[in-house]
Amino acid sequence: MQKKKEIKVLGNNNYPIGIFDSGFGGLTVMSAINKVLPSENLIYFGDTAHVPYGAKSRDTIVRFSKDIISFLIKNKAKLIVVACNTVSALALPVLEKILKIPPIIGVIEPGVRVAIDASKSFRIGIIGTEGTIKSKSYPKAINKLVKAKVYQQACPLLVPLVEEGLIDGEITDKVVKKYIKPLLAKKIDTLVLGCTHYPFLRKILEKNLDKNIIVVDSAISTALEVKLILDKKFLFASKNGKKYLKFYVSDNPEKFKKIGMRFFSKDITIIKKVDLVG
Ligand code: DGL
Fold first, then answer.
1. Would you say 124 and 149 are in contact if contact means Cβ atoms under 8 Å apart?
2. Active-site annotation holder among 29, 79, 84, 89
């Protein structure tokens, strides 16, 4: 087993957990954290001015992420969750080095651990954005822990379909079939949803997968990882403190609110537009 990274967490127990994504998708992670840790204050930043990150270069994603992380730290985040697979895949290792900020976790390692536990044949499929797939972060993370066959598939059409609310129906069904066909041919027994948007497609994916294939949603595993870290560091927020959920975006708060409601079941009320230099 790989030694788990020591994550230092700063700050007061009632300081918020800072969560960010390129846009709306990370709300699936925030929603999972909110369910697993109902007493925690949460702040979310969606970089709606720059979404999608899926096909952008590492340098650009690092630059955007640095600004967002500084914003979350200014807002006293006690732990930062990179709720975006593309940022986790391309930028997280660089950010940890450049910014020397220890309190940060991504979505890849938590998802990978669950996938390894779930897989019997160690034939694991990964679906994600072009950036995530090209980075090979998932195969690298899996093969650090076990010897497995990892088959990847970039699915660039899935994010726009989800953003348009097309989470079922004929068009999405055709697209899903096309993307998972090569993975089915490889006889995978586990499929990792390597993108924050894909939990919304879980039903249609499962309909098209063989019954024995286990689907891994890294939103849930990341939330459980956050809980473990807070537990280890004695950093749970007090149960009787006043809880808040705050949302920040870099553009178009109205659209974020409308689409965000689909990603996040609770009312998105406190939402502000902030200008980050970048
Ligand atoms: N949040 C991104 C991810 O999880 C998907 C959306 C985008 O391309 O920015 O990879």
1. yes
2. 84
